[in-house]
Structure formats: structure tokens, C-alpha cells
Design goal:
By secondary structure, the chain is α+β, with helices and mostly antiparallel strands. The protein is built from 19 helices and six strands. The protein folds into two domains: 2-289, 2-methylcitrate dehydratase PrpD (Orthogonal Bundle); 299-435, 2-Layer Sandwich (60s Ribosomal Protein L30, Chain: A). 42% of the residues lie in helices and 7% in strands. A four-stranded mixed sheet has the order 4-3-5-6. Its EC number is 4.2.1.79.
Length: 508
């Protein structure tokens, strides 16, 4: 990997495109280096993972709405599949990316990567797969495209913090997905370069989508980025250009939205970011640094859910608890903890989207129940239970510099996203325990491998898919490298006739 300095340049400098981050990213996308075997296998795992959570969410309202919108854009030639819908119906690929991306994101239960910023790199898969189906590509083409999407997404997240500037993390997803589509289609570096720039330009939005009363837009936002990526590539394939240089220009994203804005008096001086990118011929391995979720909740809660399961074994009566303090990282405290200062995070009538961003609620329920379920644990009746509300309101978070340091560690063996929990009982006793990574994490007690991904798929789709359809999908997806051009429609997962809910009418 090579670190590339990125800073703002005045227009009169005429920064050569070869020195621009978007051009360098496009260079990674066109590099024909092979995809290594373990990376290929992990890509298959993540396609299984996406299908699991998408089907589990298939009849939730945001997913039904997104599907209804997509079905309003039916397309027989160069069409793509929509999760749940039988193979005879295809839609325009950008709308398939929208519908499938929403389904994947709705339960907040697919893969994650945390570094300078947050990300769910599995959000790259729906737009790249949709274009692959529409354009009749092969399994190997799809694998190469997904490897690029993951690589560039993770590389951006390692270097550029969007959160501190209140920018939503889809601003890293959209350029990565556009580059992944470029690799999939074998496009020229010039076309991918323009696509990356258009994708970033159109995908800047703000973190109010994850603040206060969190709405269904939390699921729609990554799907929207995927849709924008498909559209950006389409325009650039037709010869259109983009605002340039999108990262380094004097009125660019860095200059006015990210780090450059905080230092306008010397805007052309400092280097703001160092972005790591693979050297030519270096394999794209970033997917191996990512990790999926065992529990349907914000990633920073994964280890704390597992810790709650462990600590509850030493508690006989939850009413004996006086106070619970979670000592954790800056991100956990300020995003899903009491440091967010969001009263909605303590409200039993809050939306599901809000509750899965409240570690106070999550820890209380996990402590009481000893299990976590993607539906039951968020049910209004469960959230409103008086004893749960009492316990929930006894929980606070505190930032601990050591946990913040571990959260940002460059050492993968030290990297940690959990915390230390102190439970104070009314009689003065204390119960203290800590956990750095979730059990399912690669460094955890029970790391996820192919059997766990398959079990997650079977658990989440049980009672929704027929056994025959579930078995068919699992057989096909594990044979992905051998799927020929035009055969990727087999990666769709269809529900039995009549099982899909219809959305309310809209414009489309």
C-alpha cells in the first residue's frame, strides 16, 4: 500500500489529473491484478450475508416502498433482479440497486468497517450486482467489481473522517461503488475517473439522518448512493464529465465540507489526509479487514451485547441494580451513547431506527433477555416494558481515552470496539467486566466463517423462503466463480407467490 497525500490546491495550479485522488482511485479500479482465493471466498460470504438480511427485512415498510418504486421501472432488456421478486420481472439496474440496497440496509445487520470513519462496505454489492445482471456479466466479473468496491471504500474510510464534519458516510460509498462498476465493466481509467467524481459530488449529505428521531432514511441513504453510482457511470460512459478536481479543488468537498473548511486562512497549505491505495499489481484485500454482525444493531454495540449476555449470569435480580456505566470509545459515547444528548435514545416510544442507535436500550434488553432478535428485541411492547425502562434509564456512557485509542489503533490485534461495564448494586457491590471485540469478529471468541454465514442465512430466512429456494441459492452462490456471462440472475432470491406485500401507491 502507498499513502497518497490529499490537500486543497488553487485552480490556477492546474493540478494534473495524475496527482488527483480520483484518478489514482480509478487506477486501482483498472488494475487487472487477480483476486486472491480467500478474498473470493469472503466475497461469496458477504453475498450470502446480504441475502440473509435482505430477505429477513423483505416485508418491512421501507423495503416494500423501495420495491414498489423499483417495480415502477420494469425493463426486460438489460434489466436487473429485485430481491423477493420472481425472475421473470426485471427492472432498470439503478432501481434494482435502490430496492436491494434498502433491503440489505434495513435491519442494520450486515458487514462493517470502522476506522477514521464508519462504513458498511457490503452496501457496494447491490449496485455492482445490479449492473452485472443488466449487462450480462459473469461470476468472475462480479467478483472483480466487488473487490474494487470494497478496496476503495475501506481505503477512504481508513483516511478521511466524514463524521467530524457531520457528513453522512455514504460519501465514501458512492465513489467506491462507481469504481467497482467500472472494474466490472472493464471501463477505461478516464471514464472511471469521471464517474468517481460525479458520484462523490452527488452523494454529499449530512448526518441528521442518524441524529435525533432516526427515520427510515437510514436504510434508504446507502441505497440512494448505490443508485447515484449507477447513474454516474452511465452518464460518464456516454462521454459526460464531472466537477474536477472533486477532492482537491479550491471549491471542492475537502475545501468547503471537510478538513479544509476549518483552516480557510491557509487553505492551500497543509496536507489534510493521507489515503492508502494498493500499488499497481498489489492484490485488493480490503474486504478481509471488514467484519459482519451477529446481532441486528449498530456495530459498536456488538461486543457490548455479547458482554451483557456474559454479565447477566452473575445477576439474580435486575431491580437490585443502582447504576450501570459503560466506559467506551469517543464514537460509541457520542453516536449511540448518552454523549449524543439525544432524548429520543431514552424514549420507549422511539422508532426502531433510533433504538438500534441507543446502546443504553440495547444493553438493558440484552442484559435482561440474554438473547438478541432482529424483530422481537425492538418490538414496541418490548421497548415499553416498565422494568426495562427503569433499567434502561439507569445506564450512562462515558468516553475512556484508552478505549478511544484502541478504536483507532492501526494494529489489527489491538483494534477494539467494545468497552468496560461497571454495574453498581444498591448494596454497594460492583460487577465489572469488559470485552474488546464481538464474538463474531475475526479476533473474537467465535469468528464467523462460511458455516456461520450459512447458518445466519437459514435462521433469518426461515419461514420466509421455501427450503428448495434457500438450498438453490446457497448452491449457486458458492459456485459463483463458475457462473457464466448472463447467469447472475440466479443470485436473486424469490419468495413464494403471494408472499410479498405491496406498497402504497406513489408517482411511479
Amino acid at each position: 500500500m502507498k499513502l497518497h497525500p490529499v490537500k486543497v490546491h488553487p485552480s490556477k495550479a492546474l493540478l494534473p489529473r495524475e496527482e488527483q485522488l480520483a484518478w489514482k482511485m480509478a487506477g486501482v479500479a483498472v488494475d487487472k491484478v487477480g483476486v486472491e482465493r480467500d478474498v473470493q471466498e469472503m466475497i461469496i460470504n458477504r453475498i450470502i450475508d446480504n441475502a440473509s438480511v435482505a430477505i429477513a427485512a423483505i416485508n418491512r415498510r421501507p423495503v416494500v416502498s423501495a420495491r414498489g418504486m423499483a417495480l415502477g421501472h420494469a425493463k426486460k432488456e438489460r434489466g436487473a433482479q429485485v430481491f423477493g421478486v420472481r425472475s421473470g420481472t426485471t427492472v432498470s439496474p439503478e432501481w434494482a440497486a435502490w430496492a436491494n440496497g434498502t433491503a440489505v440496509r434495513e435491519l442494520d445487520m450486515h458487514d462493517t468497517f470502522l476506522a477514521a470513519d464508519y462504513s458498511h462496505p457490503g452496501d457496494n454489492i447491490p449496485p455492482i450486482l445490479a449492473v452485472a445482471q443488466a449487462m450480462g456479466k459473469s461470476g468472475r466479473d462480479l467478483i472483480r467489481g466487488i473487490a474494487t468496491g470494497y478496496e476503495l471504500h475501506v481505503d477512504l474510510v481508513r483516511a478521511i473522517c466524514l463524521h467530524e464534519h457531520k457528513v453522512d458516510h455514504i460519501a465514501h460509498l458512492c465513489p467506491a461503488a462507481a469504481a467497482g462498476i467500472g472494474t466490472l465493466l472493464g471501463l477505461r481509467q478516464e471514464v472511471i475517473y469521471q464517474s468517481i467524481q460525479q458520484a462523490l459530488h452527488t452523494s454529499i449529505s449530512f448526518r441528521q439522518s442518524r441524529k435525533g428521531e432516526i427515520s427510515s432514511w437510514k436504510a434508504f441513504a446507502p441505497a440512494h448512493a448505490g443508485k447515484l453510482a449507477v447513474e454516474a457511470v452511465d452518464r460518464c460512459m456516454r462521454g459526460e464529465g464531472a466537477p474536477s478536481p472533486i477532492y482537491e479543488g479550491e471549491d471542492s468537498v475537502i475545501a468547503w465540507v471537510l478538513a479544509g473548511r476549518s483552516n480557510r486562512q491557509d487553505v492551500y497549505g497543509p496536507v489534510y489526509y493521507h489515503v492508502p491505495l494498493p500499488e499497481p499489481g498489489e492484490p485488493k484485500r480490503a474486504i478481509m479487514a471488514t467484519y459482519t454482525k451477529e446481532h441486528s444493531a449498530e456495530y459498536q454495540s456488538q461486543a457490548l451485547i455479547d458482554l451483557a449476555f456474559r454479565m447477566r449470569e452473575h445477576i439474580t435480580d435486575f431491580e437490585d441494580i443502582e447504576k450501570i456505566t459503560i466506559h467506551t470509545s469517543h464514537h460509541t459515547h457520542y453516536v449511540i451513547g448518552t454523549g449524543a444528548n439525544d432524548p429520543q435514545k431514552m424514549d420507549p416510544k422511539a422508532s426502531r431506527e433510533t433504538l438500534d442507535h441507543s446502546i443504553m436500550y440495547i444493553f438493558a434488553v440484552a442484559l435482561q433477555d440474554g438473547r438478541w432478535h432482529h424483530v422481537d428485541s425492538y418490538a414496541p411492547k418490548r421497548a415499553g416494558r416498565p422494568d426495562t425502562v427503569r433499567l434502561w434509564h439507569k445506564i450512562e456512557t462515558k468516553e475512556d481515552p484508552e478505549w478511544t485509542r484502541k478504536y483507532h489503533s492501526k494494529d489489527p490485534d489491538e483494534l477494539a470496539f467494545g468497552g468496560r461495564v461497571e454495574i453498581l448494586f444498591k448494596d454497594g457491590r460492583k460487577l465489572v467486566d469488559e470485552l474488546g471485540v464481538a464474538n463474531a469478529h475475526p479476533n473474537g471468541a467465535r469468528p464467523f466463517a462460511r458455516p456461520q454465514y450459512i447458518q445466519k442465512f437459514r435462521t433469518l430466512t426461515e419461514g420466509i423462503l421455501s427450503a428448495r429456494e434457500a438450498n438453490r441459492f446457497l448452491e449457486v452462490v458458492q459456485d459463483l466463480p463458475r457462473l457464466k456471462a448472463g447467469e447472475l440472475g440466479a443470485l436473486n432470491v424469490a419468495l413464494p407467490a403471494g408472499a410479498l406485500l405491496e406498497s402504497k401507491p406513489g408517482i411511479f
